[in-house]
From TrEMBL:
Belongs to the class I-like SAM-binding methyltransferase superfamily. C5-methyltransferase family. The active site is at C81. This is tRNA (cytosine(38)-C(5))-methyltransferase. GO terms for molecular function: methyltransferase activity. One of its GO terms (biological process) is methylation. Its EC number is 2.1.1.204.
């Protein structure tokens, strides 16, 4: 009581995954200002965080002076990841989508109150020029840092989402690892993030409890998609303990964008697929009720709390796209605890 809260500046805020992670960590830190340029993401953000000063801005327009006035202690950010991904052509620092991040590196030495940084990015960032520029800027400003490649699977959550994370703090070093390590597990001496006694969960508790028929129809895979892509679909059962990473192209591209679910678990997947393979008649697959995971289910797997919701006017396509760009709240929350405690 009476203790002043750490002030968080949330950059590239999207639908607020970082904000939920800060709430879940419960370490006395609160988002005071968040910025994103995407208006549909910002609508969702404001719908859920009515109290937060959320601005639709290009991050390149933020000056050191303006940031200093907000007196932030912590920066949490997920800069755009396309520059480092294969489909994004790996243009790295040359990519125009890096320019706002490069701008932040220029601003960093002039920030007076920031002593903690947490950033999330895609796998591939760790070997980029951008990563070298970032860690160099951090060091020259007196920050110590640690890097991680982590997936929610290591928190017993049945969803893969392997991502790069960097945490940095000023003045005092971390008590685990070294600067050259890229850790693939949470450090064992850090608070309560390792829960070896907890069993790996199945998908079931993350799924919606009931579906009206017309609701289910919305999510069933079209016969055309089944015929064309059945070989590459990642079909999961309710009892499975894993699922593939849901990306922003989920339901739009079939390959590698996320798992689909056998909705009716009373039918035998093997039998039905064997029948389908024999005569190519897609009707054999119908009883399986193969469907997409709903946005709510993906949000559950990503650790968004029950009170998170989309404004009614956000289209289904946009919901998937925004969730695909977001992050696992539990993983970030654990890292924030390690950083701030
Ligand atoms: N962590 C967020 C998602 C980050 S995805 C979440 O939980 O949803 C990257 C975000 O960066 C996107 O929302 C994109 O709109 C935003 N962005 C990209 N370039 C930007 C810029 N120059 N200024 C502000 N936001 C930008």
């Amino acid at each position: 009581m009476g203790e002043t809260k750490l002030r968080i500046l949330e950059l590239y805020s999207g639908i607020g995954g970082m904000h939920y992670a800060a709430e879940l960590a419960n370490v006395g830190a609160e988002v005071v200002f968040s910025v994103d340029i995407n208006t549909s993401a910002n609508e969702v953000y404001r719908h859920n965080f009515k109290q937060t000063n959320q601005q639709s801005r290009n991050i390149e327009s933020l000056s050191a002076n303006e940031i200093n006035k907000l007196k932030p202690n912590v920066i949490m950010m997920s800069p755009p990841c396309q520059p480092f991904t294969r489909v994004g052509l790996k243009l790295d620092v040359e990519d125009s989508r890096c320019s706002s991040f490069l701008h932040l590196l220029e601003v960093l030495p002039h920030l007076e109150t920031v002593s903690f940084v947490l950033m999330e990015n895609v796998v591939g960032f760790e070997t980029s020029e951008m990563r070298n520029a970032f860690t160099k800027a951090l060091k020259s400003c007196g920050f110590y840092f640690r890097e991680f490649l982590l997936s929610p699977v290591s928190l017993q959550i049945p969803n893969s989402r392997n991502r790069y994370y960097l945490i940095a703090k000023k003045f005092t070093n971390f008590t685990f690892g070294t600067e050259t390590d890229i850790m693939t597990a949470f450090p064992s001496n850090s608070c309560d993030v390792n829960m070896p006694s907890v069993e790996q969960s199945t998908l079931e508790p993350y799924l919606e409890k009931s579906f009206a028929d017309e609701e289910l129809a919305r999510y069933l895979l079209p016969a055309k998609t089944l015929v064309k892509y059945w070989r590459i679909l990642d079909v999961r059962q309710r009892s499975d303990i894993s699922s593939c990473c849901f990306t922003k192209a989920y339901t739009h591209y079939a390959e590698g964008t996320g798992s689909v679910l056998q909705h009716d678990s009373s039918e035998s997947f093997r039998e039905k697929f064997a029948e389908f393979e024999k005569d190519g008649n897609v009707a054999h697959l119908k009883p399986l009720q193969l469907r997409y995971f709903t946005p709510r289910e993906i949000a559950n797997l990503m650790g968004f709390p029950a009170q998170f919701s989309f404004p009614e006017n956000t289209s289904l396509r946009t919901r998937y796209r925004l969730l695909g760009n977001s992050l696992n709240v539990h993983v970030v929350s654990s890292l924030l605890k390690i950083l701030l405690e």
